[in-house]
User: Fold this.
Amino acid sequence: MQEFHFRHNHLTAGEVTASKMHRLHQVKLFFPAICHITHGTKVIVQDDNRLEATRDELIIIPANTAMEIINQPVNGLFHSDLLMLSPEIVAEFKAHYLKSWPRTTLHSLCAPLSEGLAFMWDNLLHAVRQDLPEALQKHQAFGLLLALLHVVERVAFGLGVLVSLARLEYS
Assistant:
């Protein structure tokens, strides 16, 4: 059995829990999302690209992109947290921090979960789940997105995640 729990706001928090492997075909999220696996692994297949994420990474998932998702439990448990970003939050972040990134075909990407990135992720997840004021949630979301940019620059992972952040769009 697989359970989904969501709270809908400008930032939407969700959880996925499963005791058996689940394969979901042709999944499209209406909003871009950032996901963290806390138990088990997640495989995302888009076109010819395949990535496997563990608890040591955050996954950046673009909006309106068809993908196959495989949630794989370890010792009978899979759990992940998901945050979906509203068009308004993404547009404001892009206007302030990502003015000149080129358009490109986008695939889901993983970013290594540094101590700073984990801190920002936990703060944003807490702010959304505790239904803190919208301005505080937005502030935390910008902090997480800026931390993702910092991780990318520090690890020298190329422009992939930066372009992913720039391409968070809605059709």
In short: Residues 4-8, 155-163 have pLDDT under 50 and may be disordered. The first helix runs from residue 87 to 97. Strands lie at 2-7, 11-18, 22-27, 33-39, 41-46, 49-53, 57-61, 67-72, 78-85, 109-112. The chain has four helices and ten strands.
